[in-house]
Specification:
By secondary structure, this protein is α+β, with helices and mostly antiparallel strands. It has five helices and eight strands. The protein has a single domain (22-190), classed as 3-Layer(aba) Sandwich (Aminopeptidase). The chain binds coenzyme A (COA).
Length: 193
């Protein structure tokens, strides 16, 4: 049955150009993942807070390598955009920010993130999310970005609000964590025009 609406992002348009590297200020940038990041990713997933909110751990560097290969291939397969947040000078891994659950026809995606424990509290996640949001809405062709976190994750809520994601309500019992079902607070950023 033919659609009466042209897709917001035509098939192939997302992958047509190379994944960009985006400066986020204060000596940091977003860049595509490298296999060499596997040790730092393994370390990140030993952190109890990352384990708690991302409900997984990395058993080995080899496993982290496989995740990175999946993140790298997401761009060309148009299933996800995954960036490492890294120091511009020393390339030290500071965190991660992603566009996942891509729905290109509707120009929609979900934003996800974590910050390495040592880099927290300096605004790096907020700058990463703000920069990625600007790119996705102004250059990437997206119309709506969603961001969701457990109502118990107040630090994530602060990042969402500081990055300009408006609150849209709570989805009750929407995600299973290690300690049970969590209510999920939904935020979104919508391109106007
Ligand atoms: C959430 C997370 C990504 C924030 O990273 P970050 O780089 O420290 O973020 P920023 O510095 O940009 O902002 C953090 C904000 O949270 C606030 N914050 C930190 N811990 C908090 C807490 N326990 N309760 C309330 N606010 C808190 C900080 O004060 C800051 O807000 P402010 O600037 O208004 O003071 C990081 O804490 C993290 O990786 N947590 C574990 C994984 C996770 O929760 N991922 C998100 C899943 S939805």
């Amino acid at each position: 049955m033919p659609s009466l609406v042209a897709p917001a992002i035509p098939v192939g348009a997302f992958a047509a150009s190379d994944q960009p590297t985006l400066p986020i200020g204060s000596g940091a940038l977003l860049r595509p993942w490298r296999i060499a990041d596997a040790e730092a990713v393994t370390e990140a997933f030993q952190d109890p807070e990352i384990q708690r909110w991302h409900v997984r751990t990395a058993d080995s560097v080899e496993e982290a390598r496989e995740w990175i290969e999946g993140w790298q291939s997401g761009w060309r397969s148009e299933t996800g955009g995954h960036w490492a947040v890294a120091g511009a000078e020393d390339d030290r891994l500071l965190g991660r920010v992603s566009l996942k659950s891509l729905h290109l026809e509707d120009g929609k995606a979900e934003v996800a993130y974590w910050t390495m424990p040592a880099a927290r509290g300096s605004g790096v996640c907020t700058r990463a999310v703000t920069t990625l949001t600007h790119w996705a809405l102004e250059k990437g062709g997206f119309h709506r970005l969603e961001l969701e976190h457990s109502t118990a994750n107040q630090a994530s809520c602060r990042v969402a609000i500081k990055a300009g994601f408006e609150e849209e309500g709570v989805r009750r019992g929407a995600a299973l964590h290690a300690d049970g079902w969590h209510d999920m607070h939904l935020h979104a950023h919508v391109r106007h025009g």
